[in-house]
Design a protein that fits this description.
The protein has 494 residues and is an alpha/beta fold. Helix content is 31%, strand content 22%. The chain has helices spanning 50-65, 89-107, 119-131, 147-153, 199-203, 211-223, 241-244, 253-263, 281-289, 306-311, 318-331, 350-363, 390-413; strands at 10-11, 41-46, 69-71, 79-84, 113-118, 137-139, 172-173, 181-185, 187-188, 207-208, 228-232, 268-271, 293-298, 336-343, 367-372, 419-428, 433-434, 437-438, 444-449, 460-463, 473-481, 486-493. It is globular.
Length: 494
């Protein structure tokens, strides 16, 4: 996991401050921040998942809207805000180190205050307050709306006469390195009780965002030039079910998608975190009928052994997953299926691991993300016997990725000779040799087809690069393939 540079681009029908123009460009680490030069300077670091990125985008809108000059340059800031991740051990360690780095800058007099917010704070606030007293303010997930009032009370933000919303839709500031791709977080929390996962303990029960607010947010994103919108939550299939319990007329996921498709002009919608048991025939029919709803599903299964799935408290077993995959592939032409799995769960035997490998060979997912099990305190899995040694987990992870690498390479090879629509992300100067298409020493476009999600999947290297613009769609003829990436020639620009 890496800290993300946060560009600052107004995201609303009109800028939330008159001095921030609609023509404002994205801020990178080496580019001056947006905002009046004499304003208090706030540095913000975002760690963790895309859901955290969305939270930071809301905070950025609130900070800029209340008179701050915001960037990701910590050393030039008055206040540093660290949006933490508390999901797995590696993410927690990175969050702690980032907070400590900010505290060292404070000790040297380089910055005036340190604020820690987000998941890890929600989970460990008391412990963090005791262990790192140098931090001036800790705000959990349920307290992030207090950020602006707290900074104003501390003298870090000016008093404003006009009212500016705090942490409200559609007030976001785009914070992706590719501003033509963004995320729409449709709910918070999770109702599932997976034994390895601590998320419900600090993000709470599932809470769906109101459909009109999500549509307004998506429309604002489209107006800012977003071409690809990734629909995210803890379980996207669960959207609306919490409201449905008290209101039979409540909208569910297909209703939300129809509203987004009808009321926005976003060319690509991509669905993430879809539990297999929650994917309905209505959703399948909608994906077939609507070109903007990409034939792509991120569908985490977590394992392929029924015994381990039961111990994980997952709602699905092999038979259901197998049946759901068959229905999906029969119903949706050209479907790309991505999944995630965990290796090294407590008590995972050699037979269990073989079941997982055999299941992956049988299903042949197009994309697989694999993780080694991480002990999360307070979860049932953390108390289980037969915790596996890290060396064995790493060895199994490597074996699994060897299996999937072969499958992915075979799936990619099927694209050679086909013409595909791709979204250009960037132009890079030199990638080095790529298969039989040696592009060493010359620029090349980096794009993604419908089957390639940003950050988690491979990319499509395209040539010639002349005239390509990030955020445009092009038609590409695939000339070669690698384990995870494709190589193609541009035959038509948008």
């Amino acid at each position: 996991m890496n800290a993300k540079a946060l560009p600052v681009v107004p995201l609303a029908p009109d800028p939330i401050r008159p001095d921030v123009g609609r023509e404002a460009v994205a801020v990178r680490l080496k580019i001056d921040p947006v905002g009046p030069e004499d304003s208090p300077e706030i540095g913000l670091v975002t760690l963790g998942c895309d859901k955290n990125t969305v939270d930071s985008e809301k905070m950025l809108a609130a900070l800029v809207g209340h008179g701050a000059r915001v960037s990701s340059d910590l050393k030039g800031s008055d206040v540093v805000v660290v949006n933490t991740c508390g999901f797995i051990e590696a993410a927690k360690e990175q969050s702690i180190e980032t907070i400590l780095e900010a505290c060292r800058l404070k000790e040297k007099g380089r910055i005036r205050a340190v604020v820690a917010v987000g998941c890890m704070v929600q989970r460990y606030k008391d412990e963090l307050r005791s262990e790192i007293p140098e931090v001036d303010l800790f705000l959990g997930l349920n307290e992030m709306t207090s950020l602006v009032p707290a900074l104003r009370e501390g003298g870090f933000l000016p008093e404003l006469e006009e009212f500016v919303p705090v942490m409200e839709r559609p007030m976001r500031i785009l914070a992706t390195e590719t501003p033509h791709t963004s995320f729409l977080k449709i709910s918070e929390g999770c109702d599932h009780t997976c034994s390895f996962c601590a998320i419900p303990s600090f993000r709470g029960r599932h809470r769906s965002a109101p459909l009109p607010e999500l549509v307004a947010e998506a429309k604002a994103l489209a107006q800012e030039g977003v071409k690809e919108l990734n629909i995210i939550s803890q379980d996207t299939t669960w959207y609306g079910r919490d409201v449905k319990r008290r209101d039979p007329a409540a909208a569910l996921l297909p209703d939300l998608l129809r509203a987004l498709l009808r009321e926005t002009e976003v060319p690509w919608f991509r669905l993430f975190y879809m539990y297999p048991s929650g994917i309905t025939h209505e959703l399948m029919d909608l994906m077939v009928a609507e070109d903007s709803l990409l034939p792509y599903l991120d569908m985490p299964i977590q394992h392929g052994s029924d015994r381990v799935l039961k111990a994980m408290r997952r709602p699905e077993r092999q038979a259901l997953i197998r049946k759901r995959v068959a229905h999906l592939r029969d119903a949706i032409p050209g479907l790309t299926l991505r999944t995630t799995v965990i290796v090294g769960f407590p008590g995972e035997t050699d037979d269990d691991f073989r079941d997982l490998l055999d299941f992956l060979r049988e299903i042949r997912f197009d994309r697989v993300g694999a993780f080694t099990y991480s002990v999360e305190e307070g979860t049932p899995a953390a108390e289980m016997l037969d915790q596996l040694p890290a060396s064995l987990m790493r060895e199994r992870h490597e074996r699994l990725m060897d299996v999937q690498r072969e499958i992915s390479a075979e799936r990619n090879a099927e694209f050679v000779g086909r013409r595909l629509v791709a979204l250009v992300d960037e132009i890079v100067d030199n990638l080095g040799p790529l298969g039989e298409n040696d592009m060493a020493g010359r620029p090349v476009g980096v794009a993604r087809t419908e089957s390639q999600a940003i950050d988690v999947d491979g990319v499509t290297y395209v040539h010639p690069h002349e005239g390509l613009t990030p955020g445009e769609f092009v038609t590409v003829e695939i000339e070669d393939s690698q384990d995870y990436d494709l190589i193609g020639r541009v035959v038509e620009a948008s």
